[in-house]
Design brief:
alpha+beta; globular; single chain
C-alpha cells in the first residue's frame, strides 16, 4: 500500500491504483476537484515533490497546456493512479479558496 506524504500533514495510505484525488479527500485533505475528476478544470493540481506519479496522459497534458501550466512537477491529482510512495503539496484547497470542493470524482 503506497504512502502519500502531504506537505504539512501526517502521511496517509492509498490503495494501489487509487486516484490520488480520492486518497487525499478520503483522508481529510480538502482538495478541490470542481470538474468531478474529468481533467477539465485543473483545480485538483498538486505539486509532486518526491516520487514517481506515473506518465502524463493525453487529457491531462492537453488541459495543462491550455491553462498555461508548464511546470513538470505540477499534476492533476484526478489523473494520477497511485502505485508508488509520493510526497505532494496541494496547490488549491477548499479552505484556501473558499469554494465548494466539487462533485466527488468517480474512481
Amino acid at each position: 500500500m503506497p504512502t502519500i506524504q502531504v506537505e504539512g500533514r501526517e502521511a496517509i495510505r492509498a490503495e494501489e491504483g487509487q486516484k490520488l484525488v480520492l486518497a487525499l479527500e478520503d483522508n481529510g485533505v480538502d482538495i478541490l476537484h470542481r470538474c468531478g475528476g474529468n481533467a477539465r478544470c485543473t483545480t485538483c493540481r498538486v505539486e509532486v515533490l518526491e516520487g514517481d506519479a506515473g506518465p502524463v496522459g493525453e487529457a491531462e497534458a492537453a488541459i495543462l497546456t491550455t491553462k498555461g501550466i508548464h511546470e513538470p512537477n505540477v499534476r492533476l491529482s484526478c489523473q494520477i493512479r497511485v502505485h508508488n510512495d509520493l510526497t505532494v503539496k496541494p496547490v488549491m484547497t477548499v479552505s484556501d479558496s473558499g469554494m465548494d470542493p466539487g462533485k466527488r470524482p468517480v474512481d
